[in-house]
Amino acid sequence: MNSMRRRATVLAAATLAGSVLAACGSGRSDDSDAGLIVGTTDKVVSIDPAGSYDNGSMAVQTQVYQYLLNFPAGSTELTPDAAEKCDFEKPTVYVCTLKSGLKFANGNELTASDVAFSFQRIVDINDPNGPASLLGAMKKVEARDDSTVAFTLAAPNDQTFAQVLVTSAGPIVDEETYPADKLLSDEEAVEANGFAGPYTIGEYKKNELAEFTINPDYDGTYGEPKSDVTMRYYADSNNLKLDVEKGDIDVAYRSLTPTDIESLEKKKDDVTVHTGPGGELRYIVFNLKTMPGDGAEQKLAVRKAAASLVNRDEISSEVYKGTFTPAYSAVPEGQTGATEAFKDAYGDKPDPAAAKKYLEDAGVKTPVTLNLQWSPDHYGSSSDQEYQAVKRQLEADGLFKVNLQSTEWNTYSEERVADAYPAFQLGWFPDFPDADNYLTPFFAPNNFLQSHYEDDAMTKLLDAQRVDSDQASREATLAKAQDMVAAQIPILPLLTGAQVAVSGTDVKGVDDTLDASFKFRFSSLSK
Questions:
Q1: Under CATH, domain 10-232+500-524 is a member of which superfamily?
Q2: Which single residue of 142, 188, 289, 465 could bond 477 by disulfide (Cβ 3.0 to 4.6 Å)?
């Protein structure tokens, strides 16, 4: 998924995982009670947490669901939300005690049974677009009584599990209204009103409009929201830019083009451009089953040739105006343990001679026909220019013939897991501030990519770093994992970027929520 949000050290992550204790479109209406309007081009796949693992869906879930733990605005410090406290009872058992008196907006009590149900349901449904891969460390979850839930973990002293509770796998749903074996549609979820977060949802038209109304019964990390919020969805970032510039919406969050941002920065009397910590990763995924090549050796040669031909600097400067910068590893620069494994293996400039040799040595006939898919509505309108640039770079020396194809995100997210795309665009917003979140969801068994990549040696590295409380040792293991990604190239990292939001000059709280947790919290916003 889920965004760019973390500079937390491994030591801090280990400490947090060990113990978290309670210490604490159209023009807008003139009606002052209308609240704030936020615009976005991100699309919702599913409000149901078991059926989505994407930024658009997470933006809704952040507002309406409660989590055991959460990140307060402006912080990456894990804080109790529905939980009163969470701690390791023993090395493989992590226990959370709930606050008393919690309830869903429909009036049903929120108990430990709902919590256990929520996590087990994600695993059991195992939807290809869902976050089940985040729960690979969980062997079992059970409610001991109404206020106590216990997680049995696959490995002792898991350094990341507490942070998983804050991710797309963490929303608590109402077991009385959510079926155990299938997803709720968005309309069914809104009608069920099984929400316990800062907001509930009033009027809802999927990927058109969602009205978020303050939930007066919310008792959690974010405190009391300051304003009702309407989310307006845009098919075109040009209209998003025009509406925030005219004041027809209060905040534009994902995804304005670099040119739009550059233009809006010059209009300081009308709008404010806000930036937050970076960490978003843009990359190409290779489907190891359907990509070009006769057998594993040829397929690897094709991937190595592509890695030798892409020019990240050109895409960064010419397409993204420096708002995205080159990424040379599966773990972006700035994250603890990040390396530049792809630069070490393939250089930072195109090398046609090396690309040609990879293909010739494996007996691959050229030009290689590569069908490359991208989404026009999920990663910003500059995706068109980005992938036109990739096409030019791969074809420049006659080694590739690239067929670019685009698909709207709702269809794209289904077809990519059905082996319809030999190579395709994806982006990643990390779920929690740790290098593991750029590795385990991608390369562990049953991973998010659904690209037929699985390697026992990689799994062992991922398992080892996750339970290693020694920072230097853990970083060494993370480096080995990144080297393996560069050698095997299940993904080809291209760029990493920052969070950007644009607001009217009278809007407060935007900077507070553009933090390294990568949760855009409506509860922080006010006028």
A1: Periplasmic binding protein-like II (3.40.190.10)
A2: 465
